[in-house]
Amino acid sequence: MVQPTVRSVVGSVTSGNADDVSPNSSAIMAITVLADTQDVLAVVRTGFLLARSLHAPLSINLLGREISSVHVGDSSDQLTLSEVLESVQRELCDRAYNRALSFVLEASVIAASFVSAGSISLRIRAANSGS
Fold first, then answer.
1. What pTM, to 2 d.p., does this model score?
2. What is the per-residue burial (b if ≥16 Cβ within 10 Å, else e) of 37-65?
3. Closest Cα partner for 120 from 21, 25, 10, 27?
4. Nearest Cα to 41, choosing from 122, 97, 128?
5. Which residues lie closer than 8 Å to 35 by C-beta, 6 or more apart?
6. Are 36 and 102 in contact (CB under 8 A)?
7. Which of helix, strand or coil describes residue 124?
8. How many CB atoms lie within 10 A of CB 71?
9. Nearest in space to 81 (alpha carbons), one of 68, 62, 93
10. Which of 42, 44, 90, 107 lies at a 20 to 30 A Cα distance from 30?
């Protein structure tokens, strides 16, 4: 497994409760890391579950191909978590078999309490290509 180097900047954080959160709160988080197949699957699973919890659209671009752009939980005909994971795993295993053992994983989460929309975006590409 490839171990990413993570640098973070953390401001002063005070512990509190949910009553301390402003009704106009928002969060934007984005990461880019080197990842192996298992790391990618873990992030896809987490992204799917976050999208379901936040009622946000999920966009997954895998190796240059959009494999999922859905609003998770909209209807019963949407992709299930199992279907998404199987599709991603099949694609990554084929790529890993063909020499790409690590991937560049870009993930972003945008959420705001003052709007009912946010978004979750995942982009996975081979570490040795621009796709």
1. 0.70
2. bebbbebbeebbebbeebebbbbbbbbee
3. 27
4. 122
5. 2, 4, 43, 102, 103, 104, 105, 124
6. yes
7. strand
8. 15
9. 68
10. 90
